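To whoever is on call:

I kicked off a structure prediction for a single chain this morning and the downstream step that reads the tokens threw a length-mismatch warning. I double-checked the sequence; it's 118 residues and nothing unusual in it as far as I can see. Pasting both halves so you can look.
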Amino acid sequence: MEPFVEEHAVRNTKTRKFRNVLIVVGLLLVALAVLNPTREDFSEFAADNLHDKLGNWLPGGATDLLARPLLNSIAERDNYILFSVYSIPDIKDGKTFITDIQAEKRYLGLFKRFFFEL
């Protein structure tokens, strides 16, 4: 092969790889934006988490009737288009909520289903 043709083939391969990486990154960013979790998604996650922690003390129907609407109303959402950060009061016991209203738990939400505690 001639040196010019060989160099041009290598350059084309690098350009195609770079373009493919850009396409994958672009698709990932679009997926993050489209699947950014809503406040309702977070309240569903938090209510299920609360039900798991409390066990049988809280009946299953109570989470649907009480916990989800309550969590939906008190959760604060910071929307960053690709992801959201949710803040809720950190209720360790009755005294914590009354004396330290500033204590909060923060969660990072991705892809409508993944919530990570920060």
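Update from on-call: the warning came from a stale cache, not from the record. Cleared it. Sanity check on the structure: The radius of gyration is 23 Å.
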